[in-house]
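Narrative of accomplishments. A recurring question from our advisory board has been how the design workflow behaves on a single, concrete structure rather than in aggregate. To address it, we present the structure tokens for one chain from the evaluation set, followed by the sequence designed for it. No filtering or post-editing was applied between the two.
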């Protein structure tokens, strides 16, 4: 039954979905805050807060920032552990944003722990900072400091590789390898914190609480990042069936397997793909479905934008594939209004192309491209528009030119779609274009909660 029929009950249910769907995310953050409060309470209750001297105050602050930094590191793992109920309620793109900001907090807390520890202990020991650093790293007085230092260096390396300008200069494989080292940093933190931490050596309850946090995080990571993908690989037996050249550096891969209808993939969603061939098996990349899944095959379409994607045309038919997913909330379930506008930029047309196979009613598609030859799926989109009755407009031009400066501006959006503020808007494209168009939609008086954006955040 179509959700947007004449039934007022159906429309009412549509408005109830967001709150119900986001409930797991709210529960997650309640647990996060509750655990943080428990950590602080256990620390204070254990008699670890001391303000008698400046050195005592600084070392107390150092221990607390160290505990909260370790907790933030565990949250980093959980936020991208691909836990289904959390991803479905929040969306992997938003989880990635949370992951990024929590990463900042984690790094700052760990660095604060280091600085406060060195300075505080130097005051208590009445020696210089260089002498205190030498004492700490000597290994006798403060056990576990070497592993802690290595772990901190690894966290700094991960943060460095995540800075946008640096990441653009790194190959994806190098960036991916650096991020894997974050797990080593967390493991090294365990050996510094649990066996040797002053707060935990003398407090059995606090130590057991922290052990439970580490074990629970490890269990969720192993289940959802290792066991479930392996089980899916054996269950669905995915293989590349066809590799199709779409022109302009764009390649489509049609992937088949067994019982794919049980994946319950939806148009607009994406998977994280791993192609088990030489040079590719150890990296995983997110790509949206570029056609509505039919229960027998899945299709993705990739544009050559880097070392990895530029070699997709070399993937041989028959190559085994491991796919994690489906992920994403960029689906027809987000629709709240009878009228819909879909805006795509460049290769961002892929989830839009899949979505139009499911959306009925008053639908308009604006497809942004620099030139006619850059349009992806030109013939397919024309055929779909004729078959399904939606309006398709190709918006061609370069923003850097005088002629293209006002493309998809608020005035241009209202010119193309006069009732734009009365529609749900689905938007996907390159980050700069997406941000600019999202701002223009707000200026065109489209309510924020009716703008649904797919951000390629990984």
């Amino acid at each position: 039954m179509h959700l947007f029929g004449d039934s007022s009950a159906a429309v009412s249910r549509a408005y109830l979905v967001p709150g119900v769907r986001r409930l797991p995310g709210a529960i997650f953050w309640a647990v996060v805050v509750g655990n943080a409060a428990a950590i602080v309470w256990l620390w204070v209750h254990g008699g670890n807060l001391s303000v008698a001297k400046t050195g005592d105050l600084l070392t107390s602050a150092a221990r607390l920032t160290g505990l909260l930094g370790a907790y933030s590191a565990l949250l980093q793992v959980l936020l991208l552990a691909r836990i289904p109920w959390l991803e479905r309620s929040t969306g992997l793109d938003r989880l990635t944003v949370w992951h990024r900001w929590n990463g900042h907090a984690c790094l700052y807390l760990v660095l604060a722990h280091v600085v406060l520890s060195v300075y505080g202990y130097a005051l208590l020991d009445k020696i210089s900072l260089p002498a205190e650093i030498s004492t700490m790293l000597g290994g006798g007085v403060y056990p576990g400091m070497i592993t802690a230092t290595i772990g901190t260096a690894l966290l700094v390396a991960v943060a460095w590789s995540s800075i946008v300008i640096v990441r653009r200069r790194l190959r994806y494989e190098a960036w991916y390898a650096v991020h894997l080292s974050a797990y080593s940093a967390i493991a090294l933190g365990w050996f510094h914190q649990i066996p040797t931490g002053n707060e935990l050596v003398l407090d059995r309850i606090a130590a057991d609480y922290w052990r439970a946090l580490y074990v629970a995080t490890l269990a969720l990571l192993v289940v959802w990042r290792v066991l479930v993908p392996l089980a899916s690989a054996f269950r669905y037996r995915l293989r590349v069936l066809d590799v199709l050249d779409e022109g302009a550096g764009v390649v489509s891969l049609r992937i088949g397997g067994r019982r794919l209808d049980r994946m319950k993939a939806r148009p607009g969603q994406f998977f994280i793909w791993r192609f088990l061939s030489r040079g590719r098996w150890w990296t995983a990349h997110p790509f949206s479905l570029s056609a509505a899944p039919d229960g027998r095959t899945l299709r993705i379409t990739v544009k050559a934008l880097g070392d990895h994607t530029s070699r997709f045309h070399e993937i041989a038919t028959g190559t085994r594939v491991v796919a994690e997913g489906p992920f994403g909330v960029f689906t027809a379930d987000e629709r709240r209004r009878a009228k819909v506008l879909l805006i795509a930029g460049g290769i961002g047309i892929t989830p839009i192309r899949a979505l139009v196979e499911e959306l009925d009613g008053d639908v308009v598609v604006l497809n942004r491209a620099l030139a006619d030859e850059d349009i992806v799926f030109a013939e397919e989109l024309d055929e779909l528009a004729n078959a399904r009755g939606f309006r398709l407009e190709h918006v061609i031009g370069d923003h850097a030119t005088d002629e293209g400066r006002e493309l998809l501006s608020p005035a241009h959006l209202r010119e193309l779609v006069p009732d734009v503020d009365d529609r749900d808007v689905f938007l996907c494209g390159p980050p700069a274009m997406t941000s600019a168009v999202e701002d223009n939609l707000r200026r065109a008086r489209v309510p924020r909660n009716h703008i649904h954006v797919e951000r390629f955040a990984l």
